[in-house]
Write a structure and sequence with these properties.
The structure holds two protein chains of two kinds. Chain A is of the alpha+beta class. Chain A is built from three helices and five strands, in the order βαβαββαβ. In chain A, a hairpin with a 2-residue loop joins strand 3 and strand 4. Helices cover 2% and strands 40% of the residues of chain B. Classes of the chains: A alpha+beta, B mainly beta.
């Protein structure tokens, strides 16, 4: 079970408050986490990564354990603390717009 | 009891404003989709409880929402807008070619007869159709085939913002694109032709016969006169009486012929409304006076001011932010970038402030309820 914290816009979109807990089959990676998110909450399709290319949207960032994971390989393992549920994967809207 | 429902899209959510047929008092909903930009919401003429909404922002992209109960509840539907085939390129601001990229849905136009069929005008400019209530979208690619590589974005991007369906001919549709111009299909959207003869854009397009590149801001049609179109262009208010084959200017005595929206009275096909704006760089009304101008056919315009601010007003009214109802006395509505929504229940003679402190208004659509 991993924990994911979404930005406010997306929590509103799917009607959740606080963190989300997700079960992941197999290795805990960014791709697996977002796959699980989109399966559980189909309204999130296209909001974190482009549906057609699976590329992270430009103004979306991934953080965990004090690290910016945005540019990591989406198939790389998430930090152990995220994989075990000790720390949340934070999906963040980049600060932009002045 | 009949009434009116206003669907108001703003920079920070959607609001639903309702009133009875007297239109004196209004119920203002709390924000729907708070914090998101709602470029446009529109109800199905075939089922007024079926609503569609375009929800987006720069971080998380495009969402399409649908309601089956008049806006009491919503659910997300399809948001994959994939251009047909290899989309190729269009002109960029500097004249180079630029890849076609989906940005957002500017306008949603439900079918006149089928609540599950809806058209979406998007940026970069293209027309999409859904036949399953918004669950899936298919590009009507014949539009871009016409001349797409020559299109160039306006200040707001390369957006398809106007979709008009001919109630007397299901095969005829009109669209308008900034800054490409107006286009018409006579075969249900399979093929399209530019319909811009008579438009003049002297500074942007030195060629007086240019058929592509005009910055059309909006077009309005009365359903009883589908061959008559009224256009607010970047500069100039125009009229066509032959379904866009030719246009003539009807700006007449307007204090400025720059503006964004244009609307036709629901019961008077010759009565039209515009909101003059000072210029293309001063996006506020001339003299700080918010005036709607009304004309019977064009050329001669009268200012409508009663109930509207006549000093220190520096708001704008965007292209989709004016609408009319079909109640007996003919209501007219518009919203401003300052967050005000104004209503007239007497064809524009007098105005009331429905709400004055919304986020910046992007669109207003009036639904006349049975």
């Amino acid at each position: 079970m991993i924990r994911v914290l979404l930005p406010a816009h997306l929590r509103l979109l799917i009607g959740v408050e606080g963190e989300i807990e997700l079960a992941i089959d197999g290795p805990a990676t960014q791709r697996a986490a977002i796959d699980a998110l989109e399966t559980t909450y189909p309204a999130l399709r296209g909001t974190i990564r482009a549906a057609a290319t699976q590329q992270r949207r430009p103004l979306v960032r991934f953080f965990a354990c004090g690290r910016d994971l945005s540019h990591e390989d989406p198939d790389a393992s998430l930090p152990e603390a995220v994989a075990t549920g000790a720390e949340p994967l934070r999906i963040v809207g980049a600060m932009a717009g002045g | 009891m009949s009434g009116v429902r206003l669907l108001v899209g703003t920079r920070k959510g959607a609001f639903i404003l309702t009133s009875d047929e007297r239109r004196k008092t209004w119920d203002i909903s709390s924000p729907h989709f708070a914090g998101w930009e709602l470029y446009h919401l529109k109800g199905s003429p075939a089922d007024p409880n079926r609503l569609y909404a375009s929800q987006s922002n720069g971080w998380f992209g495009q969402i399409v929402q649908r309601s089956d109960d008049g806006g009491a509840s919503w659910r997300t539907v399809g948001n994959e807008f994939t251009y047909h085939g290899d989309p190729g390129t269009h002109q960029w601001y500097d004249g180079t070619q630029h890849p076609w990229e989906f940005a957002r849905v500017w306008h949603l136009e439900p079918s006149l007869t089928d609540p599950d069929t809806v058209y979406a005008g998007v940026a970069d400019a293209a027309l999409f159709q859904s036949s399953d209530g918004g669950e899936s979208w298919r590009e009507m690619a014949g539009l871009r085939d016409a001349s797409g590589p020559k299109w160039q974005p306006g200040a707001g991007g390369l957006c398809l913002h106007t979709i008009i369906l001919d109630p007397t001919n299901p095969n005829r549709m009109f669209v308008a694109i900034s800054a490409a111009g107006a286009f018409r299909s006579d075969d249900g959207g399979q093929t399209w032709k530019p319909i811009n003869r008579g438009l003049r854009s002297d500074y942007e397009l030195p060629d007086p016969d240019a058929n592509i590149g005009h910055c059309v801001h909006s077009i309005a049609m009365h359903p009883a006169r589908p061959n008559t179109l009224f256009m607010q262009k970047h500069w100039d208010v125009m009229r066509s009486d032959d379904a866009g084959e030719s246009w003539r200017e009807i700006s007449g005595n307007l204090p400025s012929d720059f503006g964004f929206p244009i609307a036709v009275h629901a019961h008077e096909p010759e009565t039209i409304y515009v909101v003059p704006i000072e210029s293309d760089y001063k996006h506020y009304p001339p003299e700080g006076k918010l005036r709607v101008y009304r004309s019977r056919g064009g050329e001669e315009w009268e200012p409508l001011t009663e109930g509207l601010p006549q000093r220190d007003c520096y708001v704008n009214v965007l292209r989709d932010a004016m609408s009319v109802d079909a109640l007996e006395s003919g209501g007219v509505y518009f919203g401003t970038t300052g967050g005000q929504v104004y209503a007239s229940a007497d064809g524009g003679d007098t105005w009331n402030t429905v709400v004055r402190d919304l986020p910046s208004v992007l669109s207003v659509e009036a639904q006349t309820l049975p």
